[in-house]
From TrEMBL:
Pathway: Amino-acid biosynthesis; L-methionine biosynthesis via de novo pathway. GO terms for biological process: homoserine biosynthetic process; lysine biosynthetic process via diaminopimelate. It holds the Pfam family AA_kinase. This is aspartate kinase. PROSITE patterns: ACT. GO terms for molecular function: aspartate kinase activity; ATP binding; homoserine dehydrogenase activity. Residues 194-263, 274-351 form the ACT domain. Keywords: ATP-binding, Kinase, NADP, Nucleotide-binding, Transferase. Gene3D superfamilies: 3.30.70.260, Acetylglutamate kinase-like (3.40.1160.10). Its EC number is 2.7.2.4.
Amino acid sequence: MLRAIYIAGHGTESFSAFVAGHGELWSAQILSAVLRKGGVDCTWMDTRDVLIVTPAGSNQVDPDYEESEQRLNNWLSNNPSKVVVATGFIASTPQNIPTTLKRDGSDFSAAIMGALFRARQVTIWTDVDGVYSADPRKVMQYDIPIVIRNIFNLSAPGTKICRAPVIEVEEDKQKLVAYVKGFATIDNLALVNVEGTGMAGVPGIASSIFAAVKDVGANVIMISQASSEHSVCFAVPEKEVKAVAKALEARFRQALSAGRLSQVAIIPKLILAAVGQKMASTPGVSATLFNALAKANINIRAIAQGCSEYNITVVVKREDCVRALRAVHSRFYLSKTSIAVGIIGPGLIGATLLNQLRD
């Protein structure tokens, strides 16, 4: 296959997917052999024989769960064993052409297999001790908990992502920490702002904007629009923002020249901070978040919140990122802060305080 790619001078996507999949094929066979040598009843699975996916974009696929479940049952009946080491990342199209699960495909394949097996739990082994936030809606269809564990630090408990909290501490229920579970940031974003008086009340403006964005294959991270309909802003990766701006200016050239749209503005070097989980119908969470950022003297460029109330997204300057995270973490009591205290010239009162601290 590599020789054919060399002769042709380029590799198609299906060629590349076939070649890239061999890392998974080899590692699965090696691990299975090690387990068998240790006395484990084990076999390995080439998931290209089981997982069927349909391309849904340049970097996305949709699993065919019905066909995959049928193929899995057939595979299991022909390969009985107590342990199965399945390849990650690779699958097949409905035409049985080898493909991959695209970006983050190994984690995705673990989630798919967990759903097909109706697993009690899915564990993602990675190189960090856990995750510090997660979209609470990204819990699998069958309410299967997902655990993130560090393969290089087995003593770390990891992070469990599930629909309901594992343990609800009674005395904590009145605290905001019970509602906000974590914060996440996405680096290297730019904000695109399309505005003009001619946008208000005009059907199809938003559709045209995002059709142009789709045409260049850009990923929209966040969308914000006020009820005045005077402007629409959205966040995209910085590497895609020039193509987005060019596509929008071409799509709205007539509206821009006529003054119905005043500008397509690019605001670079932004970072997106998201707050998530168990905030629904809890008064005061948004106010606490914005108050924490205001006290840290951090300006918010855009805000988005879905009606599910599970997530608030704010856009701030990249240089404000660390201060923003520290401010909100401190305000929501998600991290402990150490304070150094020095006592100069302790007399009777200072000495008494030192004794109290020692006791």
